[in-house]
Amino acid sequence: MQAIRRWILATLILSFLVIIAGGVVRTTQSGMGCPDWPKCFGRWIPPVNADQLPPDFEKYLRKQDIDHKFNVWHTWIEYINRLLGALLGLFAVVQVALLFRKRRQLRRSWQLALGFLGVVVATGLFGAIVVKLNLAHVSISVHLFFALLLLWVQTALWLSFRGRLFMLAVPQQMRRWLLLLTLVLLAQGILGTLVRMYVDEVSKTLQYGQREKWLADIPLAFIIHRSFSWFVLGATIFTAWKASAYPALRGGIYRLCVWTGLNMAAGIVLFYAGMPAFAQPVHLLLATAALAQAAAAWLQTRQPATDIPE
Questions:
Q1: CA 14/CA 17 separation, integer angstroms
Q2: Which residue stretches of the chain are H helix?
Q3: CB of 247 within 8 A of CB of 170?
Q4: DSSP three-state, residue 135
Q5: What does the alpha-carbon distance between residue 211 and residue 209 come to, in Å, rounded to a whole number?
Q6: Do 171 and 199 have their domain in common?
Q7: What is the DSSP letter of 40?
Q8: Which of 193, 151, 160 lies closest to 23 in space, CA to CA?
Q9: What would the mean pLDDT of 223-241 be, rounded to a whole number?
Q10: Residues 129 and 256 in one domain
Q11: Residue 115 in contact with residue 91, Cβ under 8 Å?
């Protein structure tokens, strides 16, 4: 059982790493570094120099939106991202295999492991659509949602295996507040996606240079996103105060406060420091960690048979 527990945790950590890799791909504009799928320039192992490109390489380069030239860094950043996705698929298969023998005793964990494998497959297949659509904005956002769904399902599996899924009886009002906080964080993430769409358009017109100008003309979505972050922080702190009466929730909600505060700091750095490349994946990672933490808090709770007074 200890081996299964460690594997589930490792798979959860790897899920975060895959999201970080996706953020690095976006930050470095490497999304079309491999302009075909599942191969890369028609090869299973990408080229390391222009001499290794296939004879019909121009049909691949025409799909790129940067300089239509072969860039080995963009190619291998995207390829490593794909390798991490494939590794996550392997981890998901092993996870199912490990839980197969325990499927009767751990029925819910077994079902969640199957669900996680299904989402991993769907995410990978949708990745092919993203490439086919040449990184269309909506397709990128949907792909990110798949990544969030991966985290939520794996988090539920982690809690289920540890016997903590829907086990903490709290007042219905507290459960609703935790769910509302998760939805608030999700709404903030959607606003962030709208800002990212705007930044993608501006950065493209500037040939992905002059990063300090990417938010020079502040869009309405950014103003709402920035202002709403204060509400998110306040709601998180209020939740921490409410959760102080429940030791099983307290630590997770305190960590959520930290993720939210650090994420605001990363957003401030992005805006006032001229959109430094390192801050973009950090901003995404912290937002994802906050969403996973909020969902984990709600997933641990259940409504008692007789409601507990506040």
A1: 5
A2: 2-27, 58-61, 72-100, 107-132, 137-161, 172-205, 220-243, 247-272, 279-299
A3: no
A4: coil
A5: 5
A6: yes
A7: B
A8: 193
A9: 93
A10: no
A11: no
Q: Are residues 112 and 1 in the same domain?
A: yes
Quick check: 32 and 135 in contact, CB under 8 A?
yes
What domain range is 186 assigned to? 166-310
pLDDT tens-place string over residues 126-154? 777 766 665 555 666 777 788 888 899 99
How distant is the alpha carbon of residue 160 from its chain centre? Answer: 21
List CB contacts of 54: < 8 A, sequence separation 6 or more. 41, 42, 43, 60
Structure token pair of residue 247: 């030791």
Number of domains in the chain: 2
Give me the amino acid identity at 143.
Answer: H
> Which of 163, 181, 211 represents a domain boundary (last residue)?
163
Same domain, 154 and 36: yes
Residue keyed to tokens 């709290």: 170
247 and 136 within one domain: no
pTM of the model: 0.84
Burial class (CB in 10 A: 0-12, 13-18, 19+), 179: middle
Claim to verify: residue 193 and residue 65 sit in the same structural domain: no
